Structures are given as C-alpha cells and as structure tokens.
Amino acid sequence: MSQEYPLYVILLGAPGAGKGTQALHISKTLGVAHVSSGDLFRAVRESDTELGRLVKSYYDKGALVPDDVTIRMILERLRQPDCVTGCLLDGFPRTMEQAQALDAALKPQAKRVDKVIYLHVSESELLRRLSGRWLCRNCGASYHTVSAPPKQEGACDLCGGALYQRPDDTLETAKSRLEVYFRQTLPLIDYYMQQGKLSQVNGGQSIEAVEHAMSGALRS
Ligand code: ADP
Ligand code: AMP
Questions:
Q1: Could you tell me the CATH number of the domain that includes residue 108?
Q2: What average pLDDT does the segment 139-168 reach?
Q3: Atom of ligand 2 nearest to the CA of 39
Q4: In this predicted structure, what is the pLDDT of residue 219?
Q5: Second label for 179, Cα 20 to 30 Å away, from 92, 127, 144, 159?
Q6: How many distinct structural domains can be found in the chain?
Q7: What average pLDDT does the segment 132-145 reach?
Q8: Closest-lying ligand to the alpha carbon of 212?
Q9: 166: helix, strand or coil
Q10: Whether pLDDT at 6 is above 90
Q11: Is 80 within a domain?
Q12: Could you tell which of 34, 67, 94, 168 is best to mutate to test the pocket of ligand 2, judged by most ligand atoms within 8 Å of the CB?
C-alpha cells in the first residue's frame, strides 16, 4: 500500500491478541517501520544500567513502565529516519497519558494518528495464547505450541534463531497483565472511537483470517 503522506497506525489489543504476529505482515504491506514498545523494553531490560533495572522491576511483574519513561523512549524512536514517513505502533499507547502525548508530539509536524485497529480476543483465548507463546530470541517472531508451531521444535522458521518463553507469560503474571490492560488501556478504545479512527477486528479467528480482516479495515 503506498501513500502520499506519513501514515501512523496503531495496533490496539490485549497482551496475546496477536499484535506482534500481525505487525510483521501489516508493516510490510503499509511500507512503514514496526515499532513495538515491548520489543524496545525487552532490549533495555537486558542492559546492566539504571534504566535497565528500572524497566525490569516493572516488566517482570507485569506492570506498565511509568509513562514518562515510556513516552520519552517512543518519541525518541519516532524521530529516527525510518519513522519519518510513518510507522505501525504495537503496544503503544497503553494509557490515556501516552495517547495524548503522542497526539501532542505529532501535531506540530502536521502529522496525526491516522488509524487504530483494535484486535478483540476473549480473555480465555488470550490466556491460552500467552501460556503457549514462544518467541525467537534473534528476530522476535512469535510461535505457539498449538496454533502456530515452528517447523522444527525450538528453532525459528524465519532465521533459525533459538525460541524462548517470556518470563511474564506465566499464568499468574499473564492474568495480572490482563487486569492492567482492562483498567488502563481499554479506555483508549473510546478515545479513538470518538475521533472516528477505530476499526474493530475479530482477533479470535485464524492468523490468516485476522490478516485478511485487518487489510480490509486498513483500506476502509
Ligand atoms: P501480542 O503481540 O498481541 O502480545 P502475539 O502476536 O505475540 O501477541 O501472539 C500471542 C500468541 O498467540 C503467540 O503464541 C502467537 O503465535 C499466537 N497467535 C497470534 N495470533 C493468533 C491467532 N489468530 N490464532 C491463534 N493463535 C495466535
Ligand atoms: P508487550 O511485549 O507489549 O506485552 O509488553 C511487555 C511489557 O513491556 C509490559 O508488560 C510492560 O511492562 C512494558 N510495556 C510495553 N509497552 C508499554 C507501554 N506502552 N507502557 C508501559 N509499559 C509498557
């Protein structure tokens, strides 16, 4: 899909809704960079720095990293050259304060959030997906023991990297991440709906069916 103006699209949905899985294809279709706040925090969390330790203390218990830290990190990422023509945001914004900070940062550049795709998935399916998720340590591709198994156990189909399970995907931490999502992120649905930017997609379908529905929503 080509566009004549910068294109900023948000993928909104609970942990496990399939944002990362879909972002791989959709960012290529749109021709924009995929910006995942979770991926950025995973990289920082590994570092032996004050910021790394701060991020780890929130991340590992399934809590949101404070808004000021998150907003600074994302706005810095959006200033990189590959985001000048737009990007696909995955996992950000997650609070009203983050959504308003994003709008305020884009406005002076005559840019805006163009579209928000809300992936809706039932709570029981979210927990099933999170508890069976495996990620590639090298490229971040997402797999599932039942729904999307890799061709060879423990290895990424795309790059051969080793697969691992996230420490925050245990049932207990996944449940508290969903609580955080319902409390802090769900209000964003109304925020973007009132602006006429939100399209809801049934994320409970197969990966291919969700991809098809999302492409349709992006064209609408
Ligand atoms: P998110 O980025 O929203 O947290 P992921 O894309 O990592 O979610 O997907 C969570 C888990 O669910 C992964 O194990 C992934 O393979 C699996 N998954 C993603 N989309 C679907 C789908 N449509 N049907 C079944 N499983 C899916
Ligand atoms: P995710 O990979 O999107 O599930 O995010 C993993 C973790 O990173 C979350 O549980 C938070 O600790 C942190 N995180 C990711 N995105 C945000 C955000 N927008 N605001 C605050 N914390 C975030």
A1: 3.40.50.300
A2: 94
A3: 2
A4: 84
A5: 144
A6: 1
A7: 92
A8: 1
A9: coil
A10: no
A11: yes
A12: 94
pTM value is 0.96
Q: Which ligand is nearest to the CA of 20?
A: 1
Rounded distance, CA 94 to CA 55, Å?
16
pLDDT in tens, 181-201: 999 999 999 999 999 999 999
φ and ψ of 12, to 5 deg:
-110, 135
Q: Ligand 2 centre and the CA of 93: distance in Å?
A: 10
- C-alpha separations of 153 from 136, 140, 175 in Å: 12, 16, 27
Residue 87, domain member (yes or no): yes
Q: What are phi and psi of 141, to 5 degrees?
A: -60, 145
Within-domain flag for 140: no
Q: 108-139: string of b/e by CB count within 10 Å (b at 16+)?
A: eeebebbbbbbbebeeebbbbbbebbbbbeee
Is 3 a residue whose pLDDT tops 60? no
CB-defined site of ligand 2, < 6 Å: 15, 37-38, 41, 58-59, 62-65, 70, 91-94, 98, 168, 177
pLDDT in tens, 101-136: 999 999 999 999 999 999 999 999 999 999 999 999
What's the 140 CA to ligand 2 centre distance in angstroms? 15
**Residue 201 domain-assigned?**
yes
Token code pair at residue 134: 């495996």
Q: Residue 71 sits in which domain range?
A: 7-123+185-219
